[in-house]
Every structure is written in structure tokens, then in C-alpha cells.
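Not sure how to ask, but would you mind making up any protein sequence you like and the C-alpha cells describing how it folds?
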Amino acid sequence: MKVFRGAARLSDRAPCALTIGNFDGVHRGHQRLLARMVAAARERELTASVMTFEPHPREFFAPDRAPARVANLRDKLAAFAASGVDRVYIMPFTRRLALLAPNAFIDDILLKSCNVKWLLVGSDFKFGAARAGDVRLLSARSAAGGFELEVMPNVEDANERISSTAVRAALSAGDLTRAARLLDRAYAITGRVLHGRKLGRSLGFPTLNLRVDAPPALRGIFAVRVHCLAERAVAGVASIGLRPTVDSGGRWLLEVHLFDFTDAVYGKLVKVEFVKKLRDEQKYETLGQLSAAMAGDAAQARAFLHSAAAL
């Protein structure tokens, strides 16, 4: 899969089938959209392509009110690749792009830069300055020639639209079962293990640390399984949040204490699967109180994961 920051170079402008969106989480609705686009691309001998935006448009316009991220960019790209996508256009969401008129977006971005021959969007798709572009405009432009258009209706679960908002709500509530149903997989975050301050080690709970670049959709203390370190997943307990007891800098971090695993892991790419929420993050007055809470969390997580493995 080729990944382009912006539109493709002239030499890479192969005719394509394209779908557009933020695809946060790549949930079941997104997956159906991607599957239909890939199938259409194969039928027409086109390049199966996705256009997404970085940052999320709402992060650009109102960063303080932007929705929490369901997935990081690495996990989004991995989901695209697993869906059979040939190329991804990551469009930098800048003021220039935000002010681009809808017809100019079609002419300059879709037709000239991406060479779109077949386009798939959701029924509520909006684009261009002030979100003035919509399915009606795309239909009119398609009818005038240049590209085929297909519009996909919403995908529902129990009479509720499957959306990134629904996934976000489930994760925020700690309802990992519902989130997994909407995503069609267990919720997980992938990242590279970083060196930390070694505070967990001094408290008797060494952790591997993963950076979280944007406010995450779930926060708190969790029983987890960590993949990509051994042949089988490694059980552990994780904290994802702001670490209020030891850090006032407002930096998001995912910290995982592994059970029964002592190999060096710095620099490795791992996937942390969230299995059960144990509690919310809490600020403690002393490091002794924090250490005691961590011991309780570890015991609870170990017991739950052991019982889950026995089922």
C-alpha cells in the first residue's frame, strides 16, 4: 500500500476508485465502505484508494472541542491495508484546504490530482468551504461526466447508526464489549515502546510506555493483553491518561505493567488490547498510596485475565 502526504505525484496518478472520510477507528460501517470501494476498483481495474485528513478538521477549527481519537494514524493505516486498499492520500488539513470551494475541490483535488474515475461516499458526506459541498453536488458533477458516483447508506447496529461517535461513547463509558461489536474487533492501540522516567520501577511496577499524541477515547485503568512481544499475548495491567499523581504537564501516556515477562522491549512495536476497565484514573496524595493502588489493580487484572483464559 502506498501512502501519500497530500495528492499524488504526477507520475503516480493512476486512475482510481476513491472513498473519502476521517475513518476514525475504521469501524464496521467504514469497513463496509472500504470493501465496496475495493470491489468496485477490482471490477473496473482501478487503483483502490482512500482519502483521509490529518489533523481531523474539528481539531483544526476548534482543538479544545475536538472529539477524542478512537485510533491513531498507524492503526488507521493498518486497517486500510487489511481492507485491500492500494493507496492512501493523507491530506494535511490546512486553512487553504478549509477555504477551498466545493467545485474547486472536485476539479483540483479529485479529478486533477487524484484522477478519480469512481467515487464512493456516505449519504451525509460534506466537503469544501463551510461544508457547502454535498451528495447533490457530487451527483450533478457525476451526471455531467468525468466520474461515477455511488452513495452508501448508513450501517446500523440494533437500530443505531454505527459511527465513530458511537464507538467513542462506548469507549468513554468503559463498555469494551459494545466497542468491540461496533469495531468488529477488540479495541487496541499500537505504538512503539519508549523510555520513561522509570518511576514505575521504583514503585515495584516497571512499565512499558507508549506515547498518546491526542486525547484518547478511553481513559483509566484496564486489564490488557499485549501482542507482538512473544508467540502468545502477554497479560498485564495498563493506565491510560494524564498521571495526575506524578505529572502536572498534561501529557497523555499509555503505561503497561506486564505480568511474568521480563525481556527488554524498548523500541519494539506492540499492540495493547484492552480487555476490561477496572476503574477511573485517580490522584493520590502520596507515592505510597499510588503504589498500593497499583498493587490492587495488578491483582484484580491478573485474576480477571486468568479467569477469562480459563473460559
Notes: The chain has ten helices and 14 strands. The domain at 2-161 is CATH 3.40.50.620 (Rossmann fold). The longest helix spans residues 287-310.
